[in-house]
């Protein structure tokens, strides 16, 4: 267990007079900072001690040496390390992390030291990669690649918590890293008009991942200790300003930014406070409440050596912020981390995954110059890393896509249920007059309001301290609903744990209830409502019909698919028939051959007539069988019979003729040669002489019968083949037509699906229109009421004016009467003139 190292750094005053002017000043002695009155008397209770306190004259190199160097050394040895700067805007965070030209900051010094240490560790092989990100308004943006915006945090067993899609660069020199950081800074300001505003309102995390492995001196030694790879992560974080919103008088975009900063810094405070409580009673630590704490999780109470530099401003005007920062720092001091070297044996280490490829390349380039070799290796490593990151990003995107698809589906289903409910309600209501009154507000609320999951507690959300009484300095309560007030801000620094869940609420959307309208405008409204209602009904009907069609199509589709698969099986079976026939023909051929070879064995003289007949018959039979085989083979290959149909018959006739001629030549021949042979074949020839003609004739008959039977068999087989081919053709046609039908249905189904989605879109539009209309209607009613009010006021004023004119007239008349009575002549004169 190791305590977090906490230091405070007081920056030089911008204006010395202003800093020490009339009231208080901060005094730094050893590792203590305390508030003093101008005359030097310390103010009790405002004195804090830390691991280090750096005064205004302290330079970055000292801060680095005392606070960060150990972390860097440990990171090279395989320990995770984190350093972050906390404090209000302009207190010196960026100056501490990035430094100036004359006094480089922590990041530059750390990068330089890492490579020096690596050089001083020749017995280990290192792989260093860097990334640079910004958390702005709770979005993680890649500072190495402007196109990588709004990245997501993921967690895996192998990699722990990581930012998916963040570009990492493999580096082998400090200069290379510094160039990359400069590029990151340029990207950070990309599109920003006021870079200081942005920089004080975003957190930046510069990250180095250092992998190392003992060098394998003996190539054959593959003991397991050589496989262990140390992986350490070093985070150098420049946090956004921690000042109060009320003080800056922020509004608009800056207010929004402020909310996010406040929220993430508050979550950071919460985590720290919980970690301290946790030392006593380990409870849930809310790391997941914001991206900053999620990324810094290992650095806070986990496996990391951590240093926090709290920067403060000396000016009296910043007194409250400075006190807040010091309170935060004293809380952080009490966190303990559990630090250990990260040794891994799995493929999670990039070094291990890349080893083989690098070795291959090393062998290939052995002849080259060492520098070229190193460059090539670096390039290859970066390419491989990019490829891996790209793959990872794609996988994430795919997952995201799947999720959003699912969500969309759910949303559509919900919308449909809502529409169903709505139309049911409307149908149930019958009278539209009722609808426009109280029932309408219920209906609207169901359909359009954001559900309120949790009531916003009164505890602090709208409560404001005396600090923010003036309306100019603080936003109005209704725009103030997702971050805590200043009391909370102050309390947070002192260890109060805010219920941030409550701050995150999306408040229920207020929908004005529909005003009761009268006279002619009410009639108009009712008419409009009626129209809208009718449209809704029509759309609902259309949608239902489409749904029904779709279901029918789906059933038909399934049925067709089933039929097609059955037909496919049948076709397969039919295709098997020619093969079976081919096999049986081959068997017959073999048997036939065997029989004839046995018969031929019985014939002593090869040149005898019997031998001649036998060989001719064998030849005929074999040629038959070969023709059949050829036919079946072609049928098996799915070809049409190319051998002309008559060729078999021709062959048959030809062979029969040949047989006949052989036989007749044998019978008719008077040649002694043949006779001798015949006598030789038949040793008791004298006995058989008279019957030779009969015998030959019977052979001839037999052979003819046999030929006939073979021919018959062949014809049978051929007709069977023709039938099979026909069946095959028919089923093929059927298959194709079914396939066509299937495709048509598929297209139809797609079309229907599109129509369904179009009509849901139309419904959505219609709903929007309806909402707009209601809003317009509300406005119109309000306007009319106002007008009526004005007319009433005007008529009252007019009536009173009339009354006063009348009274004036009567007064005037009575005065005239009096005058007449008193002086009739002059009065009549004056009247006459
Ligand atoms: P922050 O990042 O906290 O908003 P800056 O680091 O930008 O603050 O510091 C604000 C101004 O103060 C800068 O002009 C910076 O150069 C200067 N400054 C901050 N700290 C020091 C320091 N210790 N020594 C000299 N100048 C400093
Ligand atoms: Mg800054």
How would you describe this structure in keywords?
833 residues; three-stranded antiparallel sheet; 23 helices; flat; binds adenosine-5'-diphosphate; binds magnesium ion
Strand content: 5-15%
Spatial extent as radius of gyration: 50 Å
* Tally of strands: 17
**Tally of helical segments:** 23
Q: What is the SS-derived class?
A: alpha+beta
Largest sheet: 10 strands, mixed
List each distinct ligand once: adenosine-5'-diphosphate, magnesium ion
- Net shape: flat
Question: What average pLDDT do the residues reach?
Answer: 75
Q: Percent range for helical residues?
A: 55-70%
Which residue ranges are poorly predicted, with pLDDT under 50 across at least 5 consecutive positions? 219-225, 246-251, 430-486, 500-520, 670-690
End-to-end distance: 115 Å
Q: Assembly state here?
A: single chain
């Amino acid at each position: 267990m190791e305590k977090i190292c906490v230091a405070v750094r007081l920056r030089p005053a911008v204006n010395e007079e202003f800093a020490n002017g009339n009231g208080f000043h901060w005094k730094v002695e050893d590792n203590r900072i305390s508030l003093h009155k101008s005359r030097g008397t310390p103010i009790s209770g405002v004195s804090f001690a830390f691991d280090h306190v750096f005064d205004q004259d302290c330079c970055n190199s000292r801060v680095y040496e005392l606070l960060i160097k150990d972390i860097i050394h440990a990171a090279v040895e395989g320990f995770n390390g984190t350093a972050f700067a906390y404090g209000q805007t302009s207190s010196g965070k960026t100056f501490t992390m990035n430094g100036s030209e004359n006094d480089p900051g922590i990041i530059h010094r750390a990068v330089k030291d890492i490579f020096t240490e690596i050089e001083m560790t020749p017995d280990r092989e290192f792989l260093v990669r860097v990334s640079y990100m910004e958390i702005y308004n709770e979005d993680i943006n890649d500072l190495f690649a402007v196109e990588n915006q709004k990245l997501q945090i993921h967690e895996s067993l192998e990699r722990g918590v990581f930012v998916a899609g963040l570009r990492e660069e493999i580096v082998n020199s400090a200069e290379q890293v510094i160039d990359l950081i400069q590029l990151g800074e340029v990207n950070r300001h990309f599109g920003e008009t006021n870079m200081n505003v942005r920089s004080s309102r975003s957190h930046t995390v510069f990250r180095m991942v250092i992998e190392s492995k003992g060098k394998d001196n003996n190539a054959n030694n593959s003991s397991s200790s050589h496989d262990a790879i140390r992986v350490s992560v070093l985070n150098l974080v420049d946090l956004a300003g921690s000042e109060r919103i009320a003080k800056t008088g922020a509004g608009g975009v800056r207010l929004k930014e402020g909310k996010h900063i406040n929220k993430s810094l508050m979550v950071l405070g919460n985590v720290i406070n919980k970690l301290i409580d946790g030392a006593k009673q380990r409870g849930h630590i809310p790391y997941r409440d914001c991206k900053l704490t999620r990324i810094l999780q290992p650095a806070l109470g986990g496996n990391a050596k951590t240093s926090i530099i709290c920067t403060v401003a000396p000016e009296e005007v910043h007194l409250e912020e400075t006190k807040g920062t010091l309170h935060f720092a004293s809380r952080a001091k009490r966190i303990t981390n559990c630090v250990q070297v990260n040794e891994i044996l799995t493929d999670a280490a990039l070094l291990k995954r890349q080893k083989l490829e690098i070795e291959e390349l090393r062998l290939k380039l052995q002849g080259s110059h060492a520098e070229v070799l190193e460059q090539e290796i670096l390039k290859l490593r970066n390419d491989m890393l990019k490829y891996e990151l790209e793959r990872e990003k794609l996988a994430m995107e795919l997952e995201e896509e799947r999720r959003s698809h699912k969500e969309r589906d759910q949303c559509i289903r919900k919308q449909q249920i809502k529409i169903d409910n709505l139309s049911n309600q409307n149908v149930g209501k019958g009278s539209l007059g009722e609808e426009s009154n109280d029932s309408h507000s219920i209906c609207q609320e169901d359909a359009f309001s954001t559900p309120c999951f949790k009531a916003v507690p009164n505890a602090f959300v709208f409560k404001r301290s005396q600090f923010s009484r003036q309306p100019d300095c603080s936003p109005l309560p209704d725009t103030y609903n997702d971050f805590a007030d200043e009391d909370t801000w102050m309390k947070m620094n002192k260890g109060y744990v805010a219920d941030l869940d409550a701050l995150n609420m999306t408040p229920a959307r207020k929908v004005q209830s529909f005003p009761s309208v009268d006279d002619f405008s009410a009639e108009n409204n009712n008419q409009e409502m009626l129209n809208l209602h009718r449209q809704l009904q029509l759309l609902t009907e259309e949608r239902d019909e489409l749904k029904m069609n779709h279901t029918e199509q789906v059933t038909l589709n399934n049925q067709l698919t089933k039929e097609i698969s059955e037909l496919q099986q049948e076709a397969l079976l039919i295709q098997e028939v020619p093969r079976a026939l081919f096999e049986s023909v081959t068997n017959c051929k073999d048997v036939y051959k065997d029989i004839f070879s046995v018969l031929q064995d019985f014939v002593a003289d090869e040149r005898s007539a019997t031998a001649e007949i036998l060989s001719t018959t064998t030849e005929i039979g074999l040629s038959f069988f070969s023709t059949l085989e050829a036919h079946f083979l072609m049928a098996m290959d799915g070809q049409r019979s190319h051998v002309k149909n008559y060729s078999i018959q021709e062959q048959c006739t030809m062979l029969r003729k040949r047989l006949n001629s052989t036989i007749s030549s044998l019978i008719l021949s008077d040649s002694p040669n043949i006779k001798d042979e015949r006598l030789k074949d038949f040793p008791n020839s004298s006995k058989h002489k008279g019957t030779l003609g009969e015998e030959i004739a019977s052979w001839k008959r037999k052979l003819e019968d046999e030929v006939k039977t073979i021919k018959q068999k062949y014809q049978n087989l051929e007709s069977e083949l023709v039938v099979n081919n026909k069946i095959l053709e028919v089923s093929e046609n059927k298959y194709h037509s079914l396939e066509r039908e299937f495709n048509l249905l598929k297209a139809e189904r797609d079309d229907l699906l599109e129509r369904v989605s179009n009509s849901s879109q139309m419904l959505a539009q219609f709903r929007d229109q309806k909402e707009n209309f209601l809003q317009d209607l509300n406005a119109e009613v309000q306007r009319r009421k106002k007008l009526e009010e004005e007319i009433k006021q005007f008529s009252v004023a007019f009536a009173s004016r009339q009354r006063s004119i009348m009274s004036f007239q009567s007064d005037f008349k009575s005065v005239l009467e009096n005058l007449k009575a008193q002086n009739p002549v002059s009065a009549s004169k004056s009247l006459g003139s």
